[in-house]
Amino acid sequence: MTDAAELRSRTQELLAAHPPATTDRLDFLKARFDAGLAWVHYPEGLGGLGVPRSLQAVVDAELEAAGAPDNDSRRNGIGLGMAAPTILKYGTEEQKQRYLRPLWIGEEVWCQLFSEPGAGSDLAALGTRAVREGDEWVVNGQKVWTSGAHNARWAILIARTDPNVPKHAGITYFICDMTDPGVDVRPLRQITGEAEFNEVFLTDVRIPDSRRLGEIGDGWRVAQTTLNNERVAIGGMRLPREGGMIAPVAKTWRERPELRTHDLHQRLLKLWVDSEVARLTAERLRQQLVAGQPGPEGAGMKLAFARLNQELSGLEVELLGEEGLLYDDWTMRRPELVDFTGREAGYRYLRSKGNSIEGGTSEVLLNIVAERVLGLPSEPRTDKDVAWKDLAR
Amino acid sequence: MSAQPDLLYSEEEEALRSAVRDLLADHCDAPGVIARTESDAPHDLAAWKALADGMGLAGLLVPEAQGGQGATHREVAVVLEELGRAVAPVPYLTSAVVATEALLECGDEELLGQLASGRAIGALAVALHRPPGTVFPAVRLENGTLHGELTGIADAVAADVLLVPAEDGGLYAVNASDATVTPQVSLDLTRPLATVALNGAQGRRLGDAEPAVRRALRSGAGLLASEQFGLADWALTETVRYLKERKQFNRPVGGFQALKHRLAQLWLEVVNLRAAARNAADALANGEYDEETAVAVAVAQAYAAPVAVHAAEEALQLHAGIGMTWEHPIHLNLKRAKADSIAYGTAGAHRSAVAELVDLQAP
Q1: In A129-228, which ranges are E strands?
Q2: ipTM of this complex prediction, to 2 decimal places
Q3: Is there a domain that residue B18 lies in?
Q4: Which of A222, A276, A340, B211 could make a disulfide contact with A214, Cβ separation 3.0–4.6 Å?
Q5: Is the pLDDT of residue B107 over 80?
Q6: In angstroms, rounded to a whole number, what is the distance separating the alpha carbons of residues A349 and A192?
Q7: Does residue A293 contact residue B17 with C-beta atoms inside 8 Å?
Q8: Which of A38-42, A151-155, A288-292 shows the lowest mean pLDDT across its residues?
Q9: How many other CB atoms are there within 10 angstroms of residue B150's CB atom?
Q10: Which residues pair with B194 in a beta bridge?
Q11: How many domains is chain B built from?
């Protein structure tokens, strides 16, 4: 049994053998992965030691104190948060060995080819087709809202392999090579002026069957692992008091007394309290996870943060008055990182509109809470037993 | 900021919850509580005796050396969650929390022992709507006796001893039999208010009123959030249960998306309220009457009051016709929730406290 003390000594051994000051960044990260200190809850040989996730903090603290480089996880959020757990759960041994190490190190960035113009909240209705030809699959279709597609080496992809069965049953999950000549990535400009998302057109893209994740026709179930991890990643960040979107508003309020009004004061105080309570709920959820009693609260965290981000950034634009009429820069750009709290108030206001859409709309999440947490009856379904090819579209 | 608060319930706290819930199932069923509201005895003194004497819960905040259980605000909060769920008409918050905290501040061993054992019920003679830290009326002290009238004193009709602030800055213990206690027709019939008139009553000076009242109201406000959580959690649970059963248009009405979304939103609020209430209880339990505790209490109260009221109002609307009847217990929950939204300061008063504490000043 590996405990905190042993993890500490393993970390010190790594640091002694590969002093961060004199070791190349990628070499250090590879050595860390091979020592099982990348994500300690992963199995041995795959960057972990098979110990509880909560012990990761022990390793991270030692490495941070020693000034060791990290894997810049924000650059590969989809890889780390979504692709990796799915590969771990459904991948073959060969797939795990091939993909997880460069993914964790950050050598290979991942993106997600799930949503389509005709399949948003009803993701299972997706129409991108994958047709078997010998040992390969030939893929044709259009994906959308693909963040980071322009930087990605690999994509997780779900496509329709059988149109003659109901929609959930005819989907298969693949790993798609983003350098394939049939992959065409085009920026999709957003209301902020920039393009963090893309449209991805897939034309006769050939994927070897060895890059299939899970069984043929089982892609919907495999995708649930991905999507559950996405919501945890979006809502589960640990924040200090006045962290997140409340921070810039509170700062402006304190520094600019001339902007204050009574109406804004009341609204700010209410949102400050709501932010603090949401932080406490997230902290309580974290304590439940550490204690091994995960609660259903996670389903609600994304809803809460979407609303807070939108109301706080909206308040900030109003608070700024004359300055609120200005915008920092409409130039079309393709940012490498998605940053909800970066730039200025106008950007934060516009970007936060996406918070209640991306990763499941707030309306869909409310359905999930109502049905899975409260056990209320599900919507009447007319699409469950109909072959995908016969659905209305 | 100090160490992270413990926001969970311990196994002991869960065991305490079960015991209190069982007891209330025996004593405080809804038809009984409703019938009692219009009787001459609004308080359920049998349930009180079982809680205070039988289970020793009146003395949770009092150290063992002074005749109590030596527990903390965390356990008291769990008791209040259950009392809130049942809208139990017992003077627990007023006697075992608010009056007891005032006596702890004054260090009065004799009365502490009596309240802790449940042999006596105490009531702080400060109107229920006063938030922590505000001014409060005091009675006149003339020739060593007390004179004056105070209104809005919660649970005074059940009290054996009243803790009365006087104009000399002292807090005085007055036997209820030496005062004229007159019930006021109250919105919340399960925590009724009364006027207290003193006409030359004898009082025993316990100590300074200001710090005692401040401490009492701060604990009262902070722990009220746990009662409000209990109220809100009951309202949500009952409404979800009912909407799964109730059928209209040939299907359970809980399957209609408009109602599902409302209940999911309410669930979010209730989950948040639990975290805020646990945080306040934990801060109070750590015994530091510092700024962190003040923030935790103000945040909990600023959040709790609207949520408990919203939960009760949603429960009424979603139960529809049956929710408007005197027979159904929703009105007990609604009246308590609405009264609680004023008790120990409104949400607005607590938001103003937050503004001072975290330096978000008014224009």
Answers
A1: 129-133, 136-143, 154-160, 171-177, 183-188, 197-208, 212-213
A2: 0.95
A3: yes
A4: A222
A5: yes
A6: 9
A7: no
A8: A288-292
A9: 22
A10: B153, B183
A11: 3
What class is the A236-360 domain?
mainly alpha
Write the burial class of residue A266 (CB in 10 Å: 0-12 exposed, 13-18 middle, 19+ buried).
Answer: middle
Residue A266 has pLDDT above 80, yes or no: yes
Nearest Cα neighbor of B280 from A236, A279, A280 is: A280
CB half-sphere exposure, B319, CA atoms < 13 A: 23
Asked if residue B215 and residue B180 are part of one domain, the reply reads no
Q: Exactly one of A116, A230, A297, A311 is catalytic; which is it?
A: A230
Answer whether B257 sits within 8 Å of A367, measured CB to CB.
yes
* B46 in the same domain as B183: no
Burial class (CB in 10 A: 0-12, 13-18, 19+), A16: exposed
In terms of domains, do B21 and B104 share one? yes
* CA–CA dist A307, A300 (Å, integer): 11
Q: What residue type is B177 in one-letter code?
A: S
Residue B178 to residue B156: CA distance in whole angstroms: 13
CATH code of residue B345? 1.20.140.10
Q: Between A288 and A284, name the one with better pLDDT.
A: A284
The nearest CA of chain B is from the CA of A364 a distance in Å of 9
* Residue B138 to residue B125: CA distance in whole angstroms: 9
The Cα–Cα gap between B70 and B105 comes to: 15
Inter-residue contact B116 to B125 (CB < 8 Å): no
> What residues of A are in contact with residue B271 (Cβ under 8 Å)?
281, 297, 300
CATH pick for A110-216 out of 2.40.110.10, 2.130.10.10, 3.40.50.1970, 2.40.50.840? 2.40.110.10
Do the first three CATH levels of A110-216 and A236-360 match, i.e. the same topology?
no
Q: What is the pLDDT of residues A336-358, one digit of tens each?
A: 777 777 889 999 999 999 999 98
Contact check, Cβ <8 Å, A300/B358: no
Instruction: Provide the mean pLDDT of chain A.
Output: 92
Are B227 and B352 part of one and the same domain?
yes
Whether residue B350 sits in one domain with residue B236:
yes
Same domain, B226 and B352: yes
The full length of chain B comes to 363
* Residue B79: HSE in the Cβ half-sphere, 13 Å Cα cutoff: 23
Of A116, A128, A115, A21, nearest in space to A68 by CA: A21
The answer to whether residue A230 is catalytic is yes
Q: How far apart are CA B275 and CA A283, in angstroms?
A: 8
CA-based torsion, A32, A38, A40, A46: positive or negative: negative
3-state secondary structure of B180: strand
Cβ contacts of A272 on chain B, cutoff 8 Å: 354, 358, 360
Q: Is B13 on the interface with A (CB under 8 A)?
A: no
What are the domain boundaries of chain A?
A: 4-70, 110-216, 236-360
CB-based burial label for B229 (10 Å; 0-12, 13-18, 19+) = buried
Structure tokens at A325: 């009429």
Residue B53 falls inside a structural domain: yes
**Angle A167-A173-A177 (CA atoms, 0-180°, nearest 5)?**
135
Burial A276-293 (b: 16+ CB within 10 A, else e): bbbbbbbbbbbbbbeeee
Q: Check whether residue B333 and residue B244 sit in a common domain.
A: yes
The pTM is what? 0.92
**What CATH number does the domain containing B39 carry?**
1.10.540.10
Q: Dihedrals φ, ψ of A239, to 5°? A: -125, 145
Contact assessment for residue A186 and residue A114, using Cβ atoms and an 8 Å cutoff = no
Q: Please tell me the predicted confidence (pLDDT) of residue A234.
A: 41
Residue B330 and residue B226 share a domain? yes
Residues comprising chain A, all counted = 393
Contact A377 B360 (CB under 8 A): no
The pLDDT of residue A283 is above 60: yes
Rounded CA separation A181/A204 (Å) = 9
Domain that holds residue B76: 11-119
CA pair distance A56, A48, nearest whole angstrom: 10
